[in-house]
Design goal:
Two copies of one chain form a homodimer. Chain A is an alpha/beta fold. Chain A is built from 13 helices and 15 strands. In chain A, the strands form four sheets. Chain A has a five-stranded mixed sheet, sandwiched between helices. Chain A has a five-stranded mixed sheet with strand order 13-12-11-14-15, with helices on both faces. In chain A, α8 runs antiparallel to α10. Chain A is globular. The relative contact order of chain A is 0.12. Chains A and B meet through β12 and α10 of A and β12 and α11 of B. The structure holds a DNA duplex (30 and 30 nucleotides).
DNA sequence: TCTACTTTTTTAAAATTTAACGAAGTATTA
DNA sequence: TAATACTTCGTTAAATTTTAAAAAAGTAGA
């Protein structure tokens, strides 16, 4: 791996994240001079990885030539897991789905075969078209649990007897594999393609079956010493006696999450509360939440009440985040964010009560506009980030055969 | 200001923080090649700013020449303020006090003249020896309150009618001025010269009249979007009804701080609790705390009990930090850290109760070995960090006359 | 339509880095 | 203990990169 090849990857990475860039932009982003940047761009065009897009709009002078990736020269396999389902999709350099995403049932809890099953699904998914599979740069996987990114281990699920998750899958599939926590990947998606773009300090709340957190610090995803940073769901925030799955009491998760919503709806309706929604025996938690979100949007008092209470509690947690991190933006994202603006008022209310005004005034609460694909997009972004990542303070050698670009085949 | 001058400052900065370095080390740290580094070093020696220190120990090959700063060629004026007292000291490049530190009474609360008075004290302090004063690179000031470092404003104290604190003092004293929050500077001192050296992710707790926090993220001080990050004292942690100075209730500060210790001692003794310590009407809070620390070290049950209870509550706050930041180290520092090991057991106890084990196991609690001068040293370090700071993404011009080195006089 | 001012891209000069080599020292082995 | 192999340090010369100057391509206002 020569130095120029590394720079070419940097260029591809920048083009992936920005969609299109001029040579001047690229030169600044990769920190190299214009003559070199243009030389490398021409080589990449020769190789068929980059294309000229035509001239962009003038900003007061000569119009710049814009460059972009050849969208279908390289692919990424994006995987989004939760405790029950695993979704897989093949994505191109434009973040388009090359093949439709497929969902498999793959329970993670108490499942010793989970990793093997994941491998089976991935293999089967790729067998459909070996030619396309050969173009895959890497596999990005988002999963719940305590993920140690560096070691490639998940301490909660997908246990391996020896070695790392990455090593196991790389051996089976012959492609670099990168894993991370689901909330971190949602934050990464928001940082690179969503509403947290160009944000230096921001917190992305993943409202889901728990309350996850992805932290953006200095414009990069922050993972902490072991990759466990952002355990928002289990901070001791309440003096209730509700037992949490983690073994403690008083966790934020015991009072606020989509599961709590589902429970409260069931209980409320059984107690005879008046509402426009009806639930059946066969409704999953997912179904119930979707009904609640829709009803709340219609103005259903009962549903709005439940969401408000949960939102207030999330807001109390956010007030701690604001005190500690002084972020520019708090972004409500994840599955629950599809409920929309209902969250904003109760969260702001909690901030008014629990934040020092100067602090809460300094940060804005926003609602994500990404849909449920955020984790997929984050998984793809993880691959692109990691593949061009240059470990600092190390010698300039590169693990042989670890980070192929399509041009090397 | 030429490019080479900037590089020379980088070299001086590195030598300041490391005391001594070889040319190879320096070359790596400033990111320039050896030929250039050596050329610049020779120029710095010519100018009298750097000296050769002789050959260092071999690490298996030819012995390196070591370089160090001329300790007394340049000085820094370090200022540490709290709500009542302001200490000033002139420090050299070895972090030695050139003149003894002096303490002035300067109450910050409800004092419109505070900034002017600070300027008076600084002027008087420097008038003692104009020759030495002429060598000052900059003035570093640590202060309590909400400090916006970029704007040079303190929203709590030292209000200025127009412009920044920095601008006011720079105009009066003719030397660059840098301000920051006291807890941030303690963290900076620990990061550069104390027990947080080479730590990538660490939290420095400033146990004082409040509970301050300086955050180390990615090996740098983290300040947040407006510089307010680390407002640990006012996170809503308790469901008490105690009114806090900030206007809210339930803040950590209402249950844990050196002021609380002082109050509890007074109350306990007045209730007839048995203890070896005695307090008089004239004892300040400072005096009382010192007595408590000494008595606890002797084994006084009453004092140990008070410290344990406070320590447990600080620990509960730390458990939130650990969940969110997954730090490598939590360092107990500041005035209260002089009490020593008494803190460790109750803090660990709180972590056992409020942390997910995998998280608390991943971070170690340490006790600072820096004494009360930490804030001074941090203030000096702030000057050295800031003076060589190169704003990213900006043109390479430098505000004229803003950042003098002695060589330029 | 002309002039003044931008920004992009190319070309040539200046500066920097890389790499090779000699110097200085350590560790291992006969 | 002397010789060989292997470090790391510091210097010099070749190769690369950056900088700066100039040309190309536009915009905007008079």
């Amino acid at each position: 791996m020569t130095k120029n090849d590394l720079l070419k990857r940097q260029i591809c990475k920048q083009l992936y994240f920005a969609q299109q860039l001029s040579s001047t932009d690229l030169s600044e982003k990769i920190g190299k001079s214009l003559p070199i940047t243009i030389k490398l761009l021409n080589e990449l065009i020769q190789e068929g990885q980059v294309k000229e897009l035509g001239y962009g709009a003038s900003t007061g002078g000569r119009r710049p030539m814009l460059y972009a990736l050849e969208a279908d020269r390289s692919y990424i396999l994006a995987v989004a897991m939760d405790q029950l389902y695993t979704r897989i999709a093949l994505m191109n350099m434009n973040n388009d789905f090359v093949w439709p995403a497929e969902q498999y049932t793959l329970p993670l809890q108490h499942n010793d075969q989970a990793l093997q099953q994941l491998g089976d699904h991935l293999e089967k998914y790729l067998e459909k078209d070996p030619a396309a599979a050969a173009r895959i740069l890497g596999i990005g996987i988002g999963m719940p649990g305590f993920v140690d990114v560096k070691k490639g281990v998940n301490y909660s699920f997908l246990k391996t007897e020896t070695g790392s998750i990455n090593a196991y899958l790389e051996k089976r599939l012959g492609v670099p594999v990168f894993i991370d926590n689901d909330s971190s990947l949602i934050a990464l998606a928001e940082l690179r393609f969503g509403m947290a773009q160009n944000i230096k300090d921001g917190m992305v709340i993943n409202i889901s079956w728990g309350i996850g957190l992805g932290m953006i610090v200095n414009g990069e995803l922050f993972r902490g010493h072991n990759g466990f940073a952002g355990e928002f769901s289990h901070i001791p925030l309440f003096s209730n006696n509700k037992m949490c799955a983690c073994g403690k009491t008083g966790c934020l998760e015991t009072e606020a999450s989509l599961l709590v919503i589902s429970d409260q709806v069931k209980q409320g309706l059984s107690e005879g509360k008046v509402s426009s929604i009806k639930i059946t025996q066969t409704d999953t938690n997912e179904d119930i939440c979707e009904k609640v979100f829709k009803a709340a949007a219609r103005g259903d008092r009962f549903c709005i009440g439940i969401l408000s209470e949960i939102g207030y509690k999330i807001g109390k947690g956010i007030s701690i985040l604001i005190h500690l991190m002084n972020p520019e933006v708090i972004l409500l994202s994840g599955r629950g964010a599809t409920a929309g603006k209902v969250w904003l008022a109760p969260v702001e209310q909690a901030l008014n009560e629990h934040c020092i005004p100067r602090l809460s005034f300094s940060t804005t609460i926003k609602l994500s506009n990404m849909d449920l694909d955020a984790e997929m997009i984050g998984a793809a972004a993880l691959v692109m980030e990691s593949i061009v990542y240059i470990p600092t303070r190390e010698k300039k050698t590169w693990p042989a055969g670890k980070l192929p670009l399509v041009s090397e085949k």
